[in-house]
Model the fold of this input.
Amino acid sequence: MSTSVSRSNTNALLISILSPAFLIAVLAFSGGPGYWLDLQWVLLLVGGEIALLLMGFPWPEIRRSVARAANRSVEAGDSARSCYFWEAAARNAVNLGVLGTLVGFVTQVCSDTGGLSGFPAAFGRALLSTTYGIVLASIFGMISLKFRLGIPTADTPDPAETWEQAPQSSGFWSHGLGYILFLGLFLWILFSSVPAGPYRPVDWFVHWPAWLVVLGGTIALALLSGSSFIGTALVPGFAFTGILGSFLGIGQALQGFSAAKIQMVAQGITFMISSCFAVLAGLLAVAYPLLDRSRDRRSMLLLRVVWYGFPVLTLLLIATAAVMVMIPIKIENAGP
Amino acid sequence: MSRSKLSGKDVEGMLRRTFRDDMPAGLEEEMLRRFETLWFHASQSSAAPRDGIASARHVFLPHLFTAPGLKKLLLAGSALVLLITGGALRIAQSSSYLADSIALKQTASSVARRLRVANQMHCRLERFDGGENPLLFSISWAEGTGTIVEIGAAGSMEILSVAADRIRTSVLSPPGLIPTGKPRGTPARDARLEPVADFLSPAALARLLSGPWLAPDPAGPGEKVSGDYTVILRGGDRGALVRIDQSTLFPASLVVYHSDSPGLLVRSRPLLTAKFQWQQASIPDRESR
Done:
């Protein structure tokens, strides 16, 4: 145990040095704080993180995990659940960051004020949200690692708090507060991005075919999984449906390029982007909180792949969509 | 394990095999802890079947078919309805603002590219500068030849000037079309050509249309035709309604208005109207130009 405590101290020291150094380096090498500061995305990340943690964990557990993270040493009994708490925080940060980038991308595409020439710059601005998410995830991941290094081995059992120990509080009020906060924040993010032209966020963000396919597919996959934990079933269910929807969309878009049909390309990109948006919204609002509350630790490898794999895939698809939007359709030898 | 299925002797035998005398130290506590864990998981789920411990072994066991309940059937039915509805809407290609916006941006990009590969353009233009009768312009541009502009009123058109715009292959230009004393490639423009300077060549037209493109407001007045777009023209003080030929992606017509407000464009008086005829390069390698 003394070895793990010593390693945790070293880790905590590294975190406290590296995190500010990383932020300072980012600011110093990339155009100053003015370029890197976007309050909209800061609020989305910070507020969203707080809301999601409240949705997934009872208040006493949040308080305990935060208090333990502030301690420089890790005592036996701190480990497993606090490790998961901070890992969930890192997961939420990455997913929220990519969701923000997706919102920024859609807003830019639909914005009447944005010409094609300003599109890359605006897209770069939307990527700030993912950058914030990665910075937060790095910090939370390091804290989680601190607890992971402190997880007792078989020689030093963890009698004080096992992973599966039922929570003392049901967390009704903290979960409710979390949902209200998340909903308010989500609506604020959607409705605050008001450009000069007509703004219809429901039309912009809700493409019904994609949302219905994602919802139906997720329910079907969750049922097929047979899992008694809805959260555990929903996470891969959402992800697999999202991947399916995205690939259907990208296939249609490529067909559109081949057939020189702009509408087909646009429909394909829309389906792809909307599928990702529906999946991220579903994961954050429904699946992750249920998973966190279930205290189910099975299939963690698969779950971790989804936690980080799907946002990365979404980011790649957004970049692909951005390139596709700007690539002109090629018409061979068409007469006037 | 169910008592109805196993006799007392079976249970005793199984327990003896499981908790053997030579069990390593600590294993018994670990096994008990895991049993408690599984019972906790089973008790947490209201949907768990009676043999919930078995279902906790793996996430992807198809228990849907072994334990069908009304709730699951309803959910399965809902999923099917959602999938069918979503698929039908997708096949029907239901309209979406996002798709329209993507199509708009891609149209702008594609039109700009098409204008780069055109090799002949004819434009008939009417300009309304406050008088009763519009001033007529007939502009013919061909790559390598230059631009010929005729100006006048209906029935009395005359060649006003010949402008050498973007001349590249001078050997193809007929004698006299290139003004002497001017550097090649520099337009020699009559002052009266200035009002139509943006229409003297596809390149000039592409620059004019390089501003933001807007989809016609569905709630706004005026007839909505597929392929009609509003463009804020270069400089930002004028707007235009441009109709794009969907099969060739060349502009078919253009109406320029004074206002740059999308809502006012269709109501304000036009400054000029232009109708185009195009011919594109037929050699594929010109596409890479």
Observations:
- Chain A has two domains: 1-199, 206-329.
- Residues 1-199 of chain A form one domain.
